[in-house]
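dumping these here so i dont lose them again. two proteins, back to back, each one seq then structure tokens. dont judge the mess
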Amino acid sequence: MTITISPAESQATTGSASTGTPIATPAERAARLVPLLAEGAAAADETDSFVAGNYALLKQAGLVEAGVPAELGGQGAGLAELSEMLRILARGCSSTALAFSMHTHQVAVPAWRWRQQKLQAAEPLLRRVAAERIILLSSGGSDWIGGSGEARRVEGGYRISGRKAFSSGSPAGDLMMTGAVLHEPEGESVLHFAVPMKAPEVRVLDNWRALGMRGTGSNDVLIQDLFIADAQVALKRKAGEWHPLFHIIATIAFPLIYAVYLGVAEHARDVAVDLARKRPPGEDALQLAGRMDTALQAARLAHGWMLSAIERHPPSAASVNEVMIGRALVAENAIRAVELAMELAGGAGFCRASGLERLFRDIQGARFHPLQAGPQSRYAGAMALGLPVDRIF
């Protein structure tokens, strides 16, 4: 199934879906896609298949370039708007929304740097996203602060080899924003660069078999002896410790990623309520519904805290701490809300036909993104006690 959007509508910045005029915002565009995304969600889950058709819909709707500044050809959406877009997409297909959040934050970070730090080096990439609707991948799940893979110095650049796990959206990707560890006498460094996914030295492994989020295509990506020229290296940093760039990444990326889990929890709540209304309400159902909505509201409040962290602090250890506290609270309460949704739905929720058991599995992914429970608690504790956090990740 496809969605038809006229060129004028694709570039629109005002209007309303309800009046038939051009859809203005990424959230309105996302809402229009929800029933289409939902059509293949169960099938992708059951067959471990990447949601390729849904990515085509995202491109047609102009959401790929939503976060690119308008001056560079995009929609100019900010962090809150992009979060709302992803939260709504999750109501149609959890996997589509989560995989697309990785592209979205890889656009949002350079867009923020272009606007706030006047980083002109970000402009060519952003213009490509807007003009060509290329898909960016993140290898953060396997790289993060420690880095992974190996960079070997050769004339004019480096030879890169490595295996990048949890590469969500990999079958649709054009560029992977990643890194590799360079071993030098003075210590290990991490080089950052973009990997062209169509290069012969790059291979997407069809190995994503998981409890939930099965349609994300989060396969391992194998890189074998890929040449990266010196001019292609965007950053060189010390391995195993926070760098200011990662303060920016963490502060901007995680509110986007966790908007997806909030959307999953909201979807589960609605499914459970619909199922519960088919039975006469009892005291136990009232209790479960109330506790579910309370947990869901706690997740919403925590996510709002994440979004506003960048307004209270410039990207820094302080903003990372606040975002990661919010991330822990969103995960805890979103997971709890879906658990209660399962109980409220009763036996019907246990059956695949309702879709609720899939959402129950999908929400578990909220546990596994950085900073996980242990590092997050240690980071917050070190901040509270005035101790270093450079190596807590």
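---- next one ----
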Amino acid sequence: MPVNIPRDLPARATLEGEGIFVMSDERARSQDIRPMRIAILNLMPTKEATETQLLRVLGGTPLQVEVSLLHMASHSSRNTPPEHLEAFYATFADVADQYFDGMIVTGAPIERLEFEDVDYWPEMAQILDWSREHVYSTIHICWGAQAALYRHYGVPKYELPQKLSGVFDHRVRRPESPLLRGFDDVLVAPQSRHTDVHAADIEATGAVDVLAIGDDSGVLLAATPDLRQVFITGHPEYDRDTLGREYQRDAEAGMDPALPANYYPEDDPSREPALTWRSHGVLLYANWLNHCVYQRVPFE
């Protein structure tokens, strides 16, 4: 939340120069406050786990958030009970005439498919196009980020020789970005994907900035300069055991997966992983809600 200080306080210029958001009494008195309307387009098969992860990081601020959960009408979920979808989810048709302050588009385990081969790609493309007019700021995660970069800017994805899985360090390249306020030089985040997008392709669009990148994991965070479109290739929202559960699932399926990098102590799957990225995930989403949504979106 912003720091409310007198306009002429000497510390004001210093704080503003450091990117700290400060507010005068005049502006504070004129502010109207209402709940932020956030839509979550949940493409993950384990919808209930993803709901919990995202709501946990969204709850890291004092802002009141009103969440609408969406699922694809053109795809039948095999892993989520129909009763759950009926009780808690809407489809795009239900909200197409509405406006949202923010939206989160999750990933999906379909990275190896060409975008046009995904059974719900026509609906996905329609939603991505709609979001540019009906949503003030949208976060796209993992496959959702790749899909949006491809749809909006023609950025291709590339299949990796083996799955990128683990917890990685990412260098903050744009510390002045409101998304990265309060971050140290290194941002820790889990990655879990079979495909990659290249920094050079993103920067060649001339419309998207790379904000954080890892030596071993590539681009983590990118955004348009106006912060209306945010792209996260990894999973700052993951729980402690999410990578482990994915590893066990792949192993049981006979996929012979590599151990998630930098995850198990001494690479021993019998030991509990340390949760080293939660603070970064909470801060990233708090910055998004505050600086990209709350402080910028019109009251109406």
